[in-house]
């Protein structure tokens, strides 16, 4: 809100409940937000209150928007076990696919602390990033992205390489079994067809089955190779209070 010179207003008679005018023009977002809370326990008291958590459309939009415009959002999270920690969280998308019938997507969070050290424990904590329901505040902040990004990119590439290796290995084993099964199937079919006494019928059926086998094996070959695609989705300054 600070970035757009808008105020987050607390109701006089409702503690920790806020309202504000949305400065962002987007058809998927409301023009005004009321009865907004950042503490999830408040929602237990009153179900009409709107919790702004990580999966909220407004929060996802502004964090993505800051990144796309070369800026970084800053979140203050209230989580006792990480109290006092701060750094930058990079959310990466890794997609592994084959252009046919295989696609897997992974959200890979990488947290680097203020001393430019990778923190695996906090990174793993954010693996279900959009399902986190924690208290936070949002503002825009400038940080030394280049130094952070160099560290994060190297770490991500190692994670990407490992995940891609195991996905490709498992997929190729599955494809190998499928191919062997197809070859066995067509071998048995051709063996039976060869027992047909009438020449022209036997030749016609053999030609047809050989063409089907060729097409099936060609299809398996097309599906065999996997490709990785990756993109940095979000960069967020994190402070644990």
If you had to describe this structure to a student in words, what would you say it looks like?
The chain is of the alpha+beta class and 241 residues long. It has a domain of 143 residues. The protein is built from five helices and nine strands. It starts with 8 loop residues before the first strand and ends with a strand.
The coarse silhouette is: elongated
* Average pLDDT taken over every residue: 81
Order of helices and strands: EEEHEHEEEHEHHE
Spatial gap, N to C terminus: 20 Å
Decide which structural class fits the backbone.
alpha+beta
The biggest sheet, with number of strands, parallel, antiparallel or mixed sense and barrel status, is: 5 strands, mixed
| Helix content estimate | 40-55%
Relevant terms:
single chain; 241 residues; alpha+beta; 5-stranded mixed β-sheet; 4-stranded mixed β-sheet; 5 helices; 41% helix; 25% strand; disordered N terminus
Layout of secondary structure:
Elements: E1 9-10, E2 18-21, E3 32-37, H1 40-45, E4 50-51, H2 57-68, E5 72-77, E6 86-97, E7 103-113, H3 120-125, E8 138-141, H4 145-193, H5 199-224, E9 227-240
Parallel strand pairs: 3-4, 5-9
Antiparallel strand pairs: 1-2, 2-3, 5-8, 6-7, 6-9
Helix pairs in contact: 4-5
